[in-house]
Amino acid sequence: MSDEPLKERIETWMVGQMPIIQMHGGESVVREANPETGEVVVELGGTCSHCGISNITAQNIKADLIRDFEEVRDVVVRVPDTGEMTSDTVEGGRGGELQFSTEGSDHF
């Protein structure tokens, strides 16, 4: 296992495994990655908020994170109703401060 924190490893994974998010004008942010509880929270933004297949992207992220990270047991992917895209992202559209609805953890 890497000495790098889980959150940073997941951010790196998102850049490599989910480039389609950024290619389509979307963004993603890993909000929580707790190696003790196995809980991960990822938020999608940008054009993901208006995309008809963001639920498929979310399901793929969930399944792949659980498969690829031994310590990950539960993944929540949030998609905003509205929100501003920001320029505060890292490579691959990752890392911005997105604005999200509070309607539910899996709101699409």
From TrEMBL:
Residues 99-108 have a biased composition (Polar residues). GO terms for biological process: iron-sulfur cluster assembly. Residues 83-108 are annotated as: Disordered. InterPro entries: FSCA_dom_sf, NIF_FeS_clus_asmbl_NifU_C. It holds the Pfam family NifU. GO terms for molecular function: iron ion binding; iron-sulfur cluster binding. Residues 19-76 form the NIF system FeS cluster assembly NifU C-terminal domain. This is NIF system FeS cluster assembly NifU C-terminal domain-containing protein. It comes from Salinigranum rubrum.
